[in-house]
Write a structure and sequence with these properties.
lipid metabolism; alpha/beta; 377 residues; disordered N terminus
Length: 377
């Protein structure tokens, strides 16, 4: 890989979190010409990135850009940063934001690289950022897409979506978050973009379970397809646009996460499918598996909106030990009668599905609808 450094455009940015995705995104930013400092909680990790240009714990064999800097001092990492990219485990976001707050520049944009729902509140990551940091929604952005860290760190081409309620903010973040192997699109559908990243993890766990249980490609393809319907129904019920779930943040991320051995969620599901208990799986996984933590909160949010998510519900039962992993595949729907297939939100031939789709449409109209969220380059 070339170590040639591109010309800088002067944008000073910080990345909070030096795990696999945080370090990879710091590399993306540096390779795009930004002036990047990454914050690592452990001084020895910060020293390895700063001096050795390696992160051997999370990205073995990957050379990091010469220009990339690292520190274990949060105040130094955030000093002068115009954009702050946050990549920490979703369940520890709130506590991390509290220590970020005193050092955050008053006009800085905050960008979430996380894909999770807070267990205690059911809030999306951008909502937690808004609540804790008191940052205006127009200065918050989220990034999601088919982004397996190690592949990108090895400079294999991919794309992602940068979403913000402010198109100007989305474009500003996207202009920094791109280089010859990483392309960023933009949209204003923050809800759909975030929920796409959350929900695909749950379906990827289901795919892993049936894979571990010995089922083949037909079963996995069926779950991916029906899982996308569940994802779209859930997201649209919460105000998202269905087009977003058909794009990089939905279908694209779902495909990558469901089929790759690099996916922590897929790996965790495969271990469950092979008969390991949840505690044993958690011990074997060296990094946070966001899908396992999000199952409960997502199902609570789904019930509150009257959205049926049979595949995710079966994942919950497997996690609880009340459903044999081999029984997840035959139960792709909870309907007692044949229903029409829906490949997009609201398209169905079955009466019960039509009623549900119409009800959600009326609810959306009552709540004022929303702005288009299509991906734009």
């Amino acid at each position: 890989m070339s170590r040639r450094q591109p010309a800088r455009h002067g944008k000073r940015v910080a990345v909070v979190g030096a795990g696999s995705w945080g370090t990879t995104f710091a590399k993306i930013l540096a390779d795009g010409g930004a002036d990047v400092v990454v914050w690592a909680r452990r001084p020895e990790l910060a020293r390895e990135i700063q001096e050795g240009k390696r992160n051997s714990d999370y990205l073995p064999g990957v050379n990091l850009p010469i220009s990339l800097r690292a520190t274990s001092r949060l105040d130094l990492a955030l000093a002068g940063a115009e954009q702050v990219f946050v990549s920490v485990p979703s369940q520890s976001l709130r506590e991390n934001l509290k220590i970020i707050a005193p050092h955050l520049h008053a006009e800085a944009s905050v960008v979430s690289l996380m894909k999770g729902v807070e267990k205690s509140t059911g809030l999306r990551m951008s909502e937690v950022i808004h609540e804790v940091l008191r940052v205006e929604e127009e200065r918050i952005a989220v990034i999601s897409g088919p982004n397996l860290a190690l592949e990108i760190a090895k400079e294999q081409p991919t794309a992602a979506v940068v979403s913000s309620s402010s198109l100007e903010t989305a474009q500003a973040v996207a202009s920094v978050s791109r280089n010859r192997y990483f392309h960023s699109f933009v949209n204003t559908d923050v809800i759909g973009t975030e929920f796409g990243g959350v929900l695909k993890n749950l379906i990827a766990v289901a795919i892993g379970i049936v894979d571990g249980a010995g089922y083949g490609e037909n079963t996995k393809a069926s779950i991916i397809t029906r899982g996308l319907v569940e994802m779209t129904d859930f997201a649209v019920a919460h105000g998202a646009h269905p087009e977003t779930l058909s794009g990089l943040a939905g279908l694209g991320d779902l495909i990558a996460t469901s089929q790759s051995p690099l996916s922590r969620n897929n790996t965790a599901g495969r271990l469950l499918g092979q008969g390991y208990r949840l505690n044993d799986v958690t011990k074997q996984m060296q990094q946070t598996t966001e899908g396992l933590a999000s199952v409960g909160p997502v199902l609570e949010l789904a019930r509150a909106k009257g959205v049926a998510m049979p595949i995710v519900e079966q994942v919950r039962q497997v996690l609880a030990g009340t459903l044999d992993p081999r029984d997840i595949a035959p139960h792709l729907t909870t309907d007692d009668e044949p229903q029409g297939e829906r490949t997009k939100h609201g398209q169905a031939q079955g009466g019960s599905a039509v009623r549900r789709a119409l009800q959600r449409a009326f609810d959306q109209l009552r709540n004022g609808g929303g702005s288009a969220g299509r991906d734009r380059p």
